[in-house]
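Example 9 (inverse folding). The structure is encoded as follows.
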């Protein structure tokens, strides 16, 4: 198998819980391949770099293999390489914007 739809691949490697959510992210231009927004029907090939924007961070993955069936979570590293910079994960540790903790009373 040399190619598969991007929405199906994103679902198969557990980036999205459902294929419909993956397709919706593509339609909203939250998914890009090599810095170009793609439609859900775009075909994924080995070696491509996929960026998935899930606010507040943008995940970056390299396609290592093409699959169309959902796999166990333990098998995901065999099919994609996470290239997301550490700075992006650091954004998750920051407090939500607009909220400033203060003492009560």
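The amino acid assigned to each position is listed next.
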């Amino acid at each position: 198998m040399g190619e598969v739809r991007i929405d199906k691949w994103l679902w198969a490697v557990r980036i999205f819980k459902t294929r419909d959510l993956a397709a919706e992210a593509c339609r909203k231009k939250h998914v890009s391949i090599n810095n170009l927004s793609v439609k859900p029907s775009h075909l994924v090939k080995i070696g491509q770099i996929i960026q998935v924007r899930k606010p507040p961070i943008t995940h970056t993955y390299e396609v290592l293999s093409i699959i169309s069936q959902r796999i166990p979570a333990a098998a995901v590293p065999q099919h994609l390489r996470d290239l997301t910079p550490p700075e992006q994960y650091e954004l998750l540790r920051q407090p939500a914007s607009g909220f400033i903790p203060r003492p009560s009373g």
